[in-house]
């Protein structure tokens, strides 16, 4: 499976090796910057220039949640291995940990002096790795 974004604010999921489109999502109002599949393979999270993060459910064939709170483009997103948390990295110099069950931001991580360009949970851990345009990498404890 391959997921691609486009300038028309749509994302498409393609099956390999035949290249058939499995699903198309429309909901962001600006370009897509990142995506990550849920550990169970049943959902997708996307990030966008519209400052939001969206969760998509494959069985419902649509967006089930829009997370708002960043003040700038959201460059990247990532699922925690438990599937209950999403991390986002933004041009507003912050990253956030979102609780998808309560549908709200649990933590905002401040400290980078420029855009946070990527974010990733370390596997089976509460540690988050961010990279920034300020030329630094940071490790964060998502519990604190």
From TrEMBL:
The keyword Repeat applies. Keywords: Repeat, WD repeat. One of its GO terms (cellular component) is axonemal central apparatus. InterPro entries: WD-F-box_domain-protein (IPR050995), WD40/YVTN_repeat-like_dom_sf (IPR015943), WD40_PAC1 (IPR020472), WD40_repeat_CS (IPR019775), WD40_repeat_dom_sf (IPR036322), WD40_rpt (IPR001680). The keyword Zinc does not apply. PROSITE patterns: WD_REPEATS_1 (PS00678), WD_REPEATS_2 (PS50082), WD_REPEATS_REGION (PS50294). Gene3D superfamilies: YVTN repeat-like/Quinoprotein amine dehydrogenase. WD repeats lie at residues 25-66, 67-108, 109-144. One of its GO terms (biological process) is axoneme assembly. It comes from the Eukaryota. PANTHER family: SPERM-ASSOCIATED ANTIGEN 16 PROTEIN (PTHR14604:SF3), WD40 REPEAT PF20 (PTHR14604). This is Sperm-associated antigen 16 protein. It comes from Pygoscelis adeliae (Adelie penguin).
